[in-house]
Amino acid sequence: MNGKKALRQALRRRRAALPPAEKQRAEMQANRLLKRFIRRGKRIAVYWPLGSEMRLDSFIRSARRRGAEVYLPYIDNRSLRLWFTPYPAGKAKTERPRGKSSLKIPQFAGRKIRAERLHAMLLPLVGINSRGYRLGQGGGYYDVSLGATRGRLQPKKIGIGFACQLCDDFLTEAHDIRADYFVCERGITRFSRK
Fold this sequence. Notes:
seven-stranded mixed beta sheet; three-stranded mixed beta sheet; single chain; 4 helices; globular; alpha/beta
């Protein structure tokens, strides 16, 4: 596990070191590329960006204009399995920040659904390897939530990040979930289902 911790730290430093203008261009390009995943009436989960994570503002505006339903993760303090609530319109007031951690992820009220009701899920990441396995913050929320969809309809799993977050490889565990795609400023990588 120490190897993953050190890798997370190195990848966070790499992402944070991107010059602001380069980061903005990369976000614009990745948001443009993501638009191919938008379909009217489909339910798409996005994430609330933390720190230097890629922002999805342009994608979210486009998805809503094109008639997609956009959702955010909702963390239940009693479980690692995520719920998803509708992305708020305008300046909606947060229901509560997520507890137990220094990560202050706003939680919004609304009808909650589980991952198997989504058509696509945009996954934040610290890193992703050449086989499609993502390295997240380490909390396990996405792995547990997507693990619960095994044997059911699964959303398209789309890892989102900067090109500097792509790694050669790292140790994976049985519970780790592979992404179907990785989208960054350099393009879209589709991972084969081996």
